[in-house]
Amino acid sequence: MPQFLLYLFAKIKKIILHFKKQKKMKEIMTVYYMEAKSARVGGRKVAWITSGGPVEPLIAMDVIPVYPENHGAMIGASKMGTDLCERAESMGYSTDLCSYARSDIACATVNGGPIGGLPRPDMLVCCNNICGTVLKWYEIQARYFNVPLFILDTPFCHEGFTEEARRYVRRQLDEYIVFLEKACGRKMDHDRMKEVGRLSLEGQRLWQAVLDTTTHSPAPMSAFDAFYHLALIVTLRGTRDVIDYYTQLLEKMKDRVAKGIGAVPNEKYRLLWDNIPIWHRTRWLSQKFASHDACLVADTYTSAWCGTMKYIDENRFFDSMAEAYTRIYLNIGVDEMARTVLGMVDKYRVDGIVMHSNRSCKPYSFGQYDIQKIVERERGIPSLIIEADMVDERSFSESQVATRIDAFMEMIKQRKGV
Amino acid sequence: MTPIDEFHEVLRDPAAYGRKLREEGRRKIVGYFCSYTPEEMIYAAGAHPMRLFGTGENIHLADAHLQSYCCSLVRGALEGALAGHLEFLDGAVFPHTCDSIQRLSDVWRMNVKGPFHLDIVMPVKLDAESAKEYMADVLKRFRKDLEDKLDAKLSDEALKDAIVRFNKIRGCLGRLYEMKNKNPGIISGSDLYAIVKASMMMDRGRVLDLLPKVIADLGKKKATAETAGRRLVLAGGICNHPDIYRIIEETGGTVVWDDLCTGSRYFEGLTEEGKDPVTALAERYISRPPCPAKHAGLFSRADHLVRIAKEKRAEGVVFFFLKFCDPHAFDYPYMKEALDGEGIPSVMVEAEDQLPSEGQLQTRFETFVQML
Fold it and tell me: pTM for the full model?
């Protein structure tokens, strides 16, 4: 067969595969949001929950979890963030506040945004393991919707997890169940909870396995793909859907590895991404780096949803949630974060780090400069800091960032000598 | 020097005061950043608790560690340490509050060599049974940590004595606030500001010598008519800008009370004496007026502010925030709404390391005061 036909065939196959992948994810997410929006008809309750929060008890209680942060990401990706942020500002919220929070708070009052607003919550579950912002944000929504709020307070682990913190969080898990039983008007089925825990852990293992496929060169997927596929492990952790989806995805990625197909056609440089994606520029950034034959092969963000498996005890899932939910990536000291980053640098064999200094996320961004210095000192690899915001486009300068990426890639190329 | 001058003198150059204390060498000096720090424990362990407010000027060393969207309190605190202005410290204590202080602790621990470093990770939610138990547990750990770091014994007796001493200080500050509230003309806002802030920094024996004198002096002053200006409440986080009191007074207002971390939130709610001291301290932290980085209920902060405004017969509220202070910025719309609902007007001012220009502030306050 002539060369160009082979090429065309491969291209078409790739497009079909891509389409299939997209459709599957879209189907699951559409069904999920339709279910959530019609929960009342089906007699089910809706809980809004933070992205790092323990969703498993909700699944076990047949409550539909809804994620305002995921909604924030959708708002950002559909470039509706600036409008909604401005609306929040007109309500009195400072422009310096988290843009997820600003856009969600504004969206609740107008039922706007890419999916016409989130389904109204029956209860709110806020776990402060990711930031203090969610506490304030959920207080605002609890007042606005006049629904009960449960706070799971996970003490920050500057230098480890103390015994008293363990007792405190464990005791709160019991308070959480009491809260849910009251809100739902029925008892928790502890056997069901065990099963959900098992599914959650299996989902996390599969997600880690998917992310691990990028240890291969060329990487079969990039961090930008991970940002997309992430939705399920965040929103539906503990369900069978997650397992089916990631099992298929893992097969696809393994197949690509076997065939030597890379996410970036001519992968020469491998990079690590740090912080929440710049949702309104993911495609642009992906293309920009690909144009330099660079692939962002891993990131500190999507790996956070499977980063504490070492603390989960399969046979005592509920008890071990206390430690697993407290010791997540954002709830640990900067030095421990730096050690995690060094581990990823080695594991994924990266040539450089791209750090998004995210005005919206102080706990993720403050400390980046120190991590940058530690990585440069310990591994001798360069890093780039991009000043931006995950949703609010007003703090993004495309031309300035493009120039900085070009300069950074020049440096990487010279260092690698390829 | 009058007692009030002495308080001002400490604020003029806190580092010089710290060095002087160090030379006198009576107590080890432990710096801290937040009104949730158990000063009583530090004092009972034989050390001197000294609150740090950061330097407001010429921040450049901290820029290598913290982004520009970090508040000036945190950047200024790190700057002070990196520039060597705090070499008189034997240790520093970081109570967990907001996301920025949380990371300040990490960055400080990794970059500031010399003084010991202690975290105290209190509960964020205060209205649950589990949180009460955890609060006491945290204080017990802090007590042990302090004993280790200071190589000292912290006895129950010493802690009880310290509680009595700090209760006296807090009681005096409350008394001064009451005096000003009754008769706003007898002491200027910036004098009272200096007294409260310096009381968190100075040798506490000296503080207890001076405060009763100030109270006695003010008691002798003839009651002036209540014409000192429109009665206002100042609300926000920490205040590092004494000029704001002068500008408010010059434009026809007077601050009769506040809801500030460098004001009433520091002294309100005394620790119960005569019971287990750790339990008593834990109970105070659970029940005192909360910082917005903590959760004591959905309406607790607005209710508290409205109550203050009504009790003190305030005609208006001035919100005074540090730029990039998320917890306060999130609470602002609902607190303003609560005031609106009670017919209490308010105005909001935001400061970075410097105040907005004086002319701009004057215009805003003039307009506000005239509207009352």
Answer: 0.95
